[in-house]
Specification:
The chain is of the alpha/beta class and 362 residues long. Helix content is 41%, strand content 17%. The two termini are 24 Å apart.
Length: 362
């Protein structure tokens, strides 16, 4: 996992020097790092997070099957080093275009698709034990936050309570943000921007002294890291508000326990203190929402079966109860179904009552 004390430029230089030594000694240049595949993903019962196991993979330059990926990794490392040297940042898409060139005296491109440069960057994260953000490469901004918090970002003081209807746009890299003032009792994270906008317009964060955070579907790395920092540095509980469907449950699972794709980043991406606030099976009866059910499709049932079999859910009676009730319903439910009770019902009654009664799942 990334180590904040590591110096990116030095790590990249050490990576390059090792390859130079291989060449000078007549050895086949090689790189070795943890195997990033499902077979090497393990669930640590003590920390309750996903991580990589002990399996390693080795790539050598003079191997037809390895050569192109080997070159792609070096190309992305070079791009990162150049960015760090000039103290600039680039997007994942920028990196793809910077890497896309034809190898001299051939018709072969270093990369043909962005997925190739993205994977090379993930390999570089494992090799250097640095996150892509530390390597000055960022993803798109896809989240918003509002609340009584003042931060310092790139020399600017920013008050999350005074940024209009859009809130603060959460960047991909939040490592250098400094929290100057945090006045909140907890955080509510929600998958849907529309629900966030409802709570923001109702000034829920002000009335309830909390922070409201959203993404557009699956949580971005920047949002997950921001949530983790707020939780660890300011001791703020995190409540997850998602749809009552397998995909909403999965979003919670990724936040709390980590994901297979980012198992190597679990140390800076998981939220072990997160709790699932809703929507739950119990809400169906408590708030008379059955008439708003959306009938399951085969893909929903398949996903539910997968999630209920996850190691971290298998022996959890409360979660298994939720899974069984959802299966019996044969249907799912959206957060917005609460609007049938009134446009501000979610802000005035649903969330305050559930939080007060501590009706959430671990």
């Amino acid at each position: 996992m990334p180590k904040q004390e590591k110096k990116p430029v030095k790590e990249l230089e050490e990576f390059g020097k090792k390859l130079v030594v291989d060449i000078e000694k007549g050895r086949n240049p090689s790189i070795e790092f943890s195997l990033r595949s499902l077979s090497n993903v393990v669930f640590d019962k003590e920390t309750r997070t996903l991580g990589l196991g002990e399996k390693q993979q080795k790539r050598t330059f003079f191997n037809v099957g390895h050569a192109k990926k080997f070159l792609q990794t070096l190309e992305v490392a070079k791009i990162s080093k150049n960015l760090l040297d000039v103290q600039k940042h680039a997007s994942l898409r920028d990196v793809f275009y910077m890497a896309k060139r034809t190898i001299p005296q051939s018709n072969i491109n270093v990369v043909d698709e962005q997925s190739e440069s993205d994977k090379a960057l993930e390999d570089l994260e494992l090799i250097t034990e640095l996150s892509r953000e530390q390597l000055n490469i960022n993803a798109n901004k896809m989240g918003s936050v509002a609340g009584n918090v003042t931060i310092e970002d790139a020399g600017d003081a920013i008050n999350w309570a005074k940024l209009g209807s859009g809130g603060w746009s959460i960047p991909s890299n939040v490592e250098n943000i400094e929290f100057k003032s945090v006045k909140a009792e907890y955080i509510i994270y929600m998958e849907k921007q529309a629900v966030w906008e409802r709570l923001h317009e109702d000034k829920f964060w002000e009335k309830q002294n909390c922070l409201i955070v959203t993404s557009q579907g699956q949580t971005t790395r920047g949002i997950r890291r921001l949530l983790q920092r707020l939780n660890e540095e300011n001791k703020l509980p995190i409540y997850v508000l998602a749809d009552f469907d397998p995909w909403g449950f999965y979003i919670y699972s990724v936040l709390k326990f980590g994901s297979i794709n980012l198992a190597h980043m679990s140390g800076t991406m998981t939220l072990q203190d997160a709790r699932f606030l809703g929507i739950t099976a119990d809400d169906v009866a408590n708030y008379d929402l059955k008439k708003h059910f959306i009938k399951f499709k085969d893909v929903d049932m398949t996903r539910l079966k997968q999630i209920s079999g996850y190691d971290w859910f298998k022996k959890n009676k409360e979660w298994q109860r939720q899974f069984k009730m959802m299966k019996d319903f044969g249907a799912k439910l959206e957060i917005q179904s609460l609007s049938s009770k009134g446009i501000t019902f979610i802000s005035d009654k649903y969330l305050p009552e559930k939080i007060k009664k501590k009706e959430f799942l671990d």
